[in-house]
Amino acid sequence: xxxxxxxxxxxxxxxxxxxxxxxxxxxxxxxxxxxxxxxxxxxxxxxxxxxxxxxxxxxxxxxxxxxxxxxxxxxxxxxxxxxxxxxxxxxxxxxxxxxxxxxxxxxxxxxxxxxxxxxxxxxxxxxxxxxxxxxxxxxxxxxxxxxxxxxxxxxxxxxxxxxxxxxxxxxxxxxxxxxxxxxxxxxxxxxxxxxxxxxxxxxxxxxxxxxxxxxx
Length: 216
Prior knowledge:
CATH class of the largest domain: Alpha Beta
Number of helices: 7
Order of helices and strands: HHEEHHEHEEHEEHE
Shape: globular
Strand order of the largest sheet: 1-2-8-7-3-4
């Protein structure tokens, strides 16, 4: 039977032309065992300065946890997620839920898709749905960009941190709810920081933030 496996993989690839970026298996966008191998607990970071949290300078500020580093195979996986393989988002969320401790919050809120994005789906929402499914938490897609600000791609850290506090708005919701934010990749934390401030301005308390990967 084992000698027929390569033929099966080739046939799968013919109908579903993709392969696992970790082990190279045809017909699978990401093997379950490979996905688990990419994830590991990473110490939470301060969303303001990027140091290990809680940090001395910002002990009470938002902290973010990630399950990997944005490099090598994980970079390939996230780029695939952003390039059309939408189903990877839910799978990443489900897998990350086993790495993170379930937060004591009422709901998860994903970082919104940029207004200039031509992607037909929000990858952070897909990840949040996977986390919510695993944790039994509601996912609220209530955050929006307030204006057409420039995308953060290619900017320096200082330029990224220049994101104004009013960059986001939240749809009307229960003002007493406690939420955790969800993003795909955290580079400087400016998006999550601005989101948390916008949430607070709308009477919503943000206690935690989660991401699949830290950019460095």
